[in-house]
Amino acid sequence: MSLRLFSLFATLLAHTLCAQDTPGLAVSFSAAGKTDSRVDRLLSLYVPGGQAPTPFLAAGAFTAKWEGDIQSPLRGIFKLGVETSGKFKLSLNGQPLLDGVGLKTVQLNKGANHLVAEITSAEKGDTFVRLNWASKDFPLEPVPPTILTHAVKPELTAASQLREGRLLFAQLNCAACHADAALLPAKGIGMPEFGQNAPLLADLGAKYKPAFLADWIADPHAIRPHTLMPKLFAGADTAQKAADLAAMLTQGAAPATEKPLDPKLASAGGGLFANLGCIACHQRPDATGADAHDRIPLGHVRDKWQAAALIEFLKDPAKNYPATRMPHFRLSDEESAQIATYLLINGMQIKRQAIAGDAARGATLLVSAGCLNCHAGMPATTQPALAKIIKAGEKGCLGADDKTRAAAPDFALSAPQRASLKAFLTTDLASLKQDTAAEFAERQIKNLNCIACHARDGNVSTWTKVDGEAKKLRDALPAKEHVEGEAVPDAPIPPLTWLGEKLQHEWMSKFIAGKIEYKPRTWLIGRMPGFPAHLASGIALGLNHQHGLPQKEADEPAPNAEKIALGEKLLGADGGFNCITCHAVGEQAATAVFEAPAINFVQTVERVRKGYFQRWVMAPIRIDPDTKMPKYADPEGLTQLTDPFDGKGAQQFEAIREYLRTVK
Ligand code: HEC
Ligand code: HEC
Ligand code: HEC
Ligand code: HEC
Ligand code: HEC
To answer: Which of 41, 59, 366, 503 has the fewest CB atoms within 10 Å distance of its CB?
Structure first.
């Protein structure tokens, strides 16, 4: 059984065991007399001094209360402890256990153990908390998200509805047409999703086929479910208006010079589509019908794009659309041409009705229909003001059908989405003026679909789920013998679960933005794509905060000379652990890569946080059950090497890290 299939199986099993419980802990916050609730993955928190604990509360002093269950896999004796800067208390199964920092021994039942914990924010500076546990079988580690569950309560449902409404209001750009300077933040302030412009409508004639463009304008949701672009027209003249706009938008464009496609490139393109993970976010271009994984269809691409423009788009999807959700893969010209050929040759041929459009009428519509409010950030003038729509109820854009919507745009909102928007509009909207990094990361992980490629909290990725489909595309590639050391398509990708605890903020921000030049896992064909830089640093910060960690760790003193020497020895073959069989150190290649490929230690120093370095080397399988990295310490933390440090792993590994800090 392949590793991917095995983890799929393990996850299914885990899910059948506790199907009635919802993952994560319920947290309720209070500040300045108001309360708010949400679900957190872990019992940890990081709120910088002077910031609000959630977007719906005021900045300043707060309390938080967690409730839920620790689902212990076994009955047994555990140690529980907390690191915090606030006043913290925890009770387990109704008994008080922790009051402030320190480790306490406790018996956990097999299955649910009810937990209630409370914190009062630190009097000065940042408030953080991290709940850890240990047993005789494993060293101290954060209580993992896979065993935390909670019961859903009405206040949680209400709070998550407000969050959904807030996000829809921002992403669907309601304020582009329904403005109010007194109620809303200025662009670029507060919630990052608020006020993002839609794509620049430039060079459309050179990019797209005109008949397609008219169909898109007439009904974007019919082409791309979940698009943020509304349908602007509903009457019998919809097709004509759309044709007028298409004529205007493509006016004066030089006819595209189509180079004939070379069909021989298509199978290589299909291989890349599978191996780079396009297939995790997109349906294949030849797929028809609904998709069990709700991926974005590409069948229409043949009918939409001019070939040269598609090749350019794939290399830089954000060029005309900085807020795009489509990441960039640093494709070479060759790769981009291969993929474009694969998409164009395998796409659908669609009969479209070409109606002659009038560009002059289109120009008027472009302003009056509100296109430029979203697409160029033009100020709203003709639509009802925000204060009016707040009181309007289920009318206009919030109407359930064409009749109640009348002249208003159609965002294809579901009934729950309309209810969420309505609920959000009853608040004072002040939450748009601020944000919380931990929640931002959670929203963007969903919006940008990180879990298309990354497993997280015990759930497998979409990529793993569609492995059968990907395999077919790989099998169509010309047979080639594997050369030792060459990248492979099905090596595991790091799960997202612990990355907020693992990685340094600065490195992670750059990496998510696609701005790190090297590739840590040279043995993977897959590569991490780059996402918009203005979102990347917020995601990285939010992930750090979710694990109760600050953006930047305290500066470390210069490496200690004595430890450096010991560390170098401990890393090597002669009297050491021989880490270098798998890990390269700068220019010095790993001595036996076939053991298991690992990351060059030079990169590790700038990537990995100090605490995680220790935790990983102490017990790698506690973090990644499938890892091939050996375990060097027993549960007491002692290693096979009794010298130096009397065999104490923590100090030995720290010496290795001190040495690595000096390697360039
Ligand atoms: C492209 C501009 C545009 C955008 C974006 C937009 N609306 Fe509208 N909205 C309109 C127009 C036009 C009307 C209809 C005005 C009329 O009937 O005269 C309307 C009407 C409404 C009404 C009814 C107002 C009334 O007094 O009857 C509500 C409620 C509403 N919109 C909510 C929203 C929400 C929520 C969003 C975001 C999801 C949104 N709108 C986004 C243009 C827009
Ligand atoms: C993390 C998810 C994700 C991955 C991975 C991804 N895409 Fe996309 N892609 C999107 C989204 C979302 C859009 C829709 C545009 C937007 O939201 O800005 C899109 C749009 C596109 C479009 C334009 C479709 C149209 O209607 O014009 C093409 C073509 C495309 N992607 C190809 C690819 C290829 C090829 C790959 C792999 C190299 C890939 N995508 C990987 C999310 C993804
Ligand atoms: C509420 C904001 C909004 C309004 C109003 C709006 N659009 Fe859009 N439009 C978008 C967004 C957002 C996208 C990007 C597609 C996506 O997110 O799926 C888009 C995409 C497009 C595209 C494809 C652009 C590309 O290069 O991929 C065209 C063309 C377009 N819109 C034309 C129009 C026209 C014409 C109008 C007026 C009739 C209009 N839009 C009104 C938000 C809007
Ligand atoms: C198309 C698939 C794909 C998508 C989508 C994707 N990733 Fe990745 N990610 C990867 C691959 C492959 C790697 C390993 C790259 C390497 O080591 O060379 C990776 C590595 C990472 C790493 C570094 C982990 C480490 O230990 O080195 C971080 C952080 C990360 N991804 C975060 C994200 C976030 C956040 C998102 C969503 C915004 C995301 N990824 C979306 C494929 C993807
Ligand atoms: C049998 C091969 C092997 C040996 C020997 C080995 N490792 Fe690893 N190591 C790995 C693998 C595999 C990974 C995980 C790679 C990944 O994240 O995809 C890893 C990851 C790491 C990481 C995280 C690096 C990063 O940048 O993400 C550290 C730190 C580490 N190892 C330290 C050590 C130390 C210290 C030793 C010796 C005491 C050692 N390793 C010996 C295989 C090995």
So the answer is: 59
Q: Which atom of ligand 2 has the smallest separation from the CA of 329?
A: 38
CATH number for the domain running over 561-662: 1.10.760.10
Indicate if ligand 3 lies below 6 Å from the C-beta of 272: no
Q: Name 636's Cβ contacts closer than 8 Å, sequence gap at least 6.
A: none
Question: Which numbered ligand comes closest to the C-alpha of 632?
Answer: 5
Residues 6+ apart with CB under 8 A from 178: 380, 383, 384, 385, 386, 388, 389
Average pLDDT of span 335-362: 94
Domain-wise residue ranges, the chain: 22-150, 204-346, 437-546, 561-662
Distance (Å, whole) CA 368 – CA 308: 33
User: What is the amino acid identity at position 531?
Assistant: F
pTM of the model: 0.96
Per-residue pLDDT tens over the stretch 131-167: 999 999 999 999 999 999 999 999 999 999 999 999 9
- The CA-to-CA distance between both ends of the chain, in Å, stands at 40
What are the b/e assignments for 553-577, b being 16+ CB within 10 Å? eeeeeebeeebbebbbbbbbeeebb
Fold of 204-346: Cytochrome Bc1 Complex; Chain D, domain 2 (1.10.760)
- Does ligand 3 come within 6 angstroms of the Cβ of 230? yes
**In percent, how much of the chain has pLDDT > 90?**
85
What is the DSSP secondary structure assignment for residue 613, as one 8-state letter? Answer: H
In 85-241, where do the E strands start and end? Answer: 87-92, 95-99, 102-108, 111-120, 127-135, 141-142, 148-150
Report, as an integer, the average pLDDT of 20-41. Answer: 95
Q: Whose CA is nearest to atom 17 of ligand 2?
A: 325
Enumerate residues lining ligand 2, CB below 6 A: 224, 273, 276-278, 280-282, 296, 298, 301, 304, 314, 321, 324-327, 329, 339, 343, 448-449, 452, 529
CATH topology of domain 22-150: Toxin - Anthrax Protective Antigen; domain 1 (3.90.182)
CA 198 to ligand 3 center in whole angstroms: 6
Pair 495, 7: CB distance under 8 Å: no
**Over the stretch 351-410, which tens digit does the pLDDT of each residue have?**
888 899 999 999 999 999 999 999 999 988 888 999 999 998 899 999 999 999 999 999
Same fold, 204-346 and 561-662: yes
What CA–CA distance (Å, rounded) separates 437 from 551? 11
pLDDT band at 646 (very low <50, low <70, confident <90, very high): very high
pLDDT value for 115: 98
Q: Separation of 599 CA from ligand 5 center, angstroms? A: 7
Atom of ligand 4 nearest to the CA of 327: 5
pLDDT, tens only, 84-105? 999 999 999 999 999 999 899 9
